[in-house]
Amino acid sequence: MPGPVAITSDSRLVAVAYSRRAVRLLDSTTWQQLATLEPPDAAELFDLRFNSDGSLLAAVSTYAIHLWDLRAIRQQLAVMKLDWDQPPLPPSATNQFQGPITVRVLAGADQPSAEAGP
């Protein structure tokens, strides 16, 4: 059985945690696999979410929230002529962050505390 599933608001992309530690991006019309994303830690993935325009994918694991910039990934794939066959993502907003963001839970569920950083 697959793990968590997320679908973009335009229904073009589906993200499926196909194992406890990896996410597959699928074309929703052909079910063709477009990419496999693996977070840097080996923790189990519990939830997946796309942002409103489908350019970011967040994966919640036991210890962190991993954020993939699909626009940047597709730009890198396009340079290698490996981009998937879907319309380009909308242009990025001018106020978007630059670089990775990591959030780590520092306390148990009964003591909410979090750390965010680059």
What does this structure look like?
There is one protein chain. It is built from 1 helix and 9 strands. The mean pLDDT is 80. A 5-stranded antiparallel sheet has the order 5-6-7-8-9. A 4-stranded antiparallel sheet has the order 1-2-3-4, with no helix packed on it. The chain starts with a strand and ends with a strand. The radius of gyration is 15 Å and the shape is globular. Strand 5 and strand 6 form a beta hairpin. It has one domain. It has one helix at 70-79; strands at residues 5-7, 13-19, 22-27, 33-37, 45-50, 56-61, 64-69, 102-105, 114-117. Helix content is 8%, strand content 40%. It is mainly beta and 118 residues long.
Separation of termini?
34 Å
| SS content category | mainly beta
Instruction: Encode the helix/strand succession as letters.
Output: EEEEEEEHEE
> What does the overall shape look like?
globular
> Biggest sheet: strands side by side, in what order?
5-6-7-8-9
- The Cα radius of gyration reads 15 Å
Beta-strand residue percentage: 35-45%
Average pLDDT, rounded to a whole number, is: 80
Please report the number of helical segments: 1
Counting structural domains, the number is 1
Helix content: under 10%
Low-confidence stretches: none
Main sheet, how many strands, which sense, barrel? Answer: 5 strands, antiparallel
Counted beta strands: 9
